[in-house]
Design goal:
By secondary structure, the chain is an alpha+beta fold. It has helices spanning 3-18, 33-43, 54-64, 86-99, 117-125, 129-184, and strands spanning 22-27, 47-51, 77-82, 104-110, 113-115. It folds into 2 domains: 3-126, Ribosomal protein L10, N-terminal RNA-binding domain (Alpha-Beta Plaits), CATH 3.30.70.1730; 128-181. Helix content is 62%, strand content 14%. A 5-stranded antiparallel β-sheet has the order 2-3-1-4-5. Helix 1 crosses helix 3 (54-64) and helix 4 (86-99) crosses helix 5. The termini are far apart. Keywords: Ribonucleoprotein, Ribosomal protein, RNA-binding, rRNA-binding. It holds the Pfam family Ribosomal_L10. GO terms for molecular function: large ribosomal subunit rRNA binding; structural constituent of ribosome.
């Protein structure tokens, strides 16, 4: 590869690092071109799966300000540059790795720090953003319903108390009216 081509490749990879929400590093040794095509298809639009020379990737990572990944760039390395949700891309790669034992997850980079293999797998095990937001909304709605019930319970209790007092006074008023009338009546 000519020096100008290498510089262009490093610049392109550095731009991919900078434009990614997360980066997942894998070893693709033993995968066929058809396997790689299937993996790229399973990632969809959420990530770009790139195979590049380790030396170029190391330079690009340094140029992009990414640190702590150098030990991952050993052997045949491919990188998934995630543009969308990291969870979706991690799920796709984990599922593909389960079906194709030749694909090995080495680690990743997200939120300004390197990720271990176990952290990438935990991210893959998370539910999607939409599901988590729906669960959060459901929990908030339930808590708001409970709070509304507590606020209205005091008012309902006060209303029942006033109604009971009115019934008691209404029941006492005729009894009190009959008692003086009986006292005024002459005894026979």
């Amino acid at each position: 590869m000519a020096k100008a081509d290498k510089a262009t490749a490093v610049a392109d990879i550095a731009e991919q690092f900078k434009g990614s929400t997360a980066t997942l590093v894998t070893e693709y040794r033993g995968l066929t071109v058809a396997n790689l095509k299937d993996l790229r298809r399973s990632l969809g639009d959420s990530a770009t799966y790139t195979v590049a020379k380790n030396t170029l990737v190391k330079r690009a990572a340094a140029e992009a300000g990414i640190e702590g990944l150098d030990e991952l760039f050993v052997g045949p390395t491919a990188i998934a540059f995630v543009k969308g949700e990291a969870v979706d891309a991690a799920k796709a790669i984990k599922k593909f790795a389960k079906e194709n034992k030749a694909l090995v997850i080495k680690g990743g980079y997200m939120d300004g720090r390197p990720l271990s293999v176990s952290e990438v797998e935990r991210i893959a095990d998370l539910e999607s953003r939409e599901v988590l937001l729906a669960k959060l909304a459901g929990a908030m709605k339930a808590n708001l319903s409970k709070a509304a019930g507590l606020f209205t319970a005091q008012q309902a209790q006060a209303a029942r108390l006033f109604a009971a007092l009115q019934e008691k006074k209404a029941a006492e008023a005729p009894a009190a009216a009959e008692a003086p009338a009986a006292a005024e009546a002459p005894a026979e």
